[in-house]
Fold each of these.
Amino acid sequence: MRADDALPQSESGDILVVEDTPASLRLLASLLAKAGYRVREAPDGELALWSAQAQPPDLILLDVRMPGMDGYEVCRQLRRSPALQDVPVIFLSAFNDTDDKLRGFEAGGVDYIAKPYDFLEVKARVAAQLQLRQLRRLLAYQNAHLQQLVEAKAQQLLRSELALAAEKQQRDAAERESRLRLAEIAHLNRNASATVLCASLIHELNQPLAAILSNAEAAELLLARPRPALGEIAEIVGDIRRDNLRASDLIQRMRTMLRKGEPVHAELDLARLVRQVAGLLAAEARKRRIRIEVQAPDTPLAVCGDAVQLEQVLVNLVLNAMDAMQDSPGAACIAIRAERLHGEVQVRVSDQGCGFDGEAPTGFASFASTKPQGMGLGLSISSAIVQAHGGRLTASNNPEGGATVGFLLPAGAARGTLPA
Ligand SMILES: Nc1ncnc2c1ncn2[C@@H]1O[C@H](COP(=O)(O)OP(=O)(O)OP(=O)(O)O)[C@@H](O)[C@H]1O
Ligand SMILES: [Mg+2]
């Protein structure tokens, strides 16, 4: 049964009475008709089966003893027919012992009425069986309806699961794409910073190279003597080695800045990173007559992330601070502070420059520059990098003048997704 079939209506009942004694058949039929039922009559088993198959009745009153096919056989055949197997059969019989009744139930009967009948009993049993049948049909209807609802819900669930999976795939692809874009823009930004620092770094590189040259010349002179002072020469070689290391360290830092590599997600010490950046920018600061002061603990400030990208954030902040101090007479110092703050590590770059024009930014939009050569990308890229590390960039104007721009990162393991 499907639930969109009409809801089974309560009805007066279509009863097939099967009885070989014509007088009994007529009497029973007329009494039932008077009680409000529609009644069909069949005088033997064959006609009863034919009539039931032509139009399934709601109930069959079936005489047991009939010539030809007896009531039990008729009942067994009814039960074999899919259209008739649910039609309730009440046996009518003059036999009244338990064995006969049991045979009736075994053949598929639902009740048993002994002859001679008390018509009130017949009416009560017929009404009870019809009501049962009606209730069974109602139950089947409700079950089918429920089943349809469950199936519809399951379909709906499947559709939304599929839609969710497709949405997640799209979101993942978009996230991958935006991580790639960020990594590319971050690399462009590093190139731009390297261009700014290039002149001062080349100048810085000149110092150890010149020292190496003059020390090498001094060593040659010492070696040309008849009895070279080996101790002195060893000291000179030590100086040459130190200057060489200084030069190659500078070159290595430039190469790291310009490298376009995969971001690395590893534990690093922010205090050390701050000192390295101060070292990298020392020559540029000297050129601009600015002092960089670092306040960072000797113990490590551990965070997880990509050292090159976090270094780039700091370079952006310090270069901005230097630019801001360009036209501020008397401005001489940039302070970089790194400290642990509850479960986070905070780094702040404070300057004595012009401060932000009006309110300090919070959203860090791209292309917002007040500098003739500025692209207005430094802060927005820095903010994107810090966010990708699970942190946030902050900016404010200092009450005493100048600005402080910094960031907070989760201490220890980073929770954010790094640019790919
Ligand atoms: N420390 C600061 N003091 C005052 N203003 C600042 C400071 N840092 C940033 N700004 C302002 O914010 C603007 C945006 O900075 P951002 O680093 O994003 O771009 P930019 O420095 O102009 O260009 P670039 O892309 O080369 O970095 C700057 O132009 C400047 O007006
Ligand atoms: Mg900038």
Amino acid sequence: MRQHDDLYSYEPAKGHGLPHDPLNSMVGPRPIGWISSRGRDGSVNLAPYSFFNLFNYRPPIVGFCSTSAKDSLRNAQETGVFVWNLATRDLAEQMNATSAPVPYGTNEFEAAGLTQRLAVHIDVPRVAESPVHFECRVTDIHRLRRHDGTDVDSWLVMGEAVAIHIARHLIVDGVFDTFGAGIILRGGGPSAYAAITPETRFDMNRPGAPR
Ligand SMILES: Cc1cc2nc3c(=O)[nH]c(=O)nc-3n(C[C@H](O)[C@H](O)[C@H](O)COP(=O)(O)O)c2cc1C
């Protein structure tokens, strides 16, 4: 198998030296944390976060990272809850619209023409057009820091999914249809995305895992 000897190397603290930062093109495509939340004043918020992932099975824990103090972080701090909504290909434009920099208190559901459906266990609206919702209670808000211990203006918000809702048609023979759900992922650069389709699937079993 080919090995790579001609390497472009850089130390991120000194800059990457390329026209576009390769960082999030390489760690990618990334799932999109489409996060709805509510502030202490009752205002509703919706925004996408691709520094997002699932970190644990039981209990299910998801997290997103706010790379400055943004409204979703503020709301998570204020009310301790948020909803993760699955972003799909048919909702891509609306998802993108909800990333617009707007003043605190602006309801991005309304700005993007999306329908609010109140969650069952927490007082946060879900995106009714999205086929999957995780109702989350905040477990940790962790400020990121450099290796020398100095603070960074980024916060990782972790939440336990206390309730999960799945559009029933996406449960096929008892299995969630990842490749039929139209899931979209964020690539790098200013505009790249990937859509998960059945052709992109391949299967592999873990060594020693039961078949
Ligand atoms: C696909 C996508 C992914 C994004 N990922 C992040 C992210 O991981 N962290 C972040 O701070 N901003 C991210 N942004 C930008 C935020 O969505 C944007 O700053 C938004 O206005 C934040 O909204 P809020 O202040 O209402 O929470 C992303 C934008 C898009 C379109």
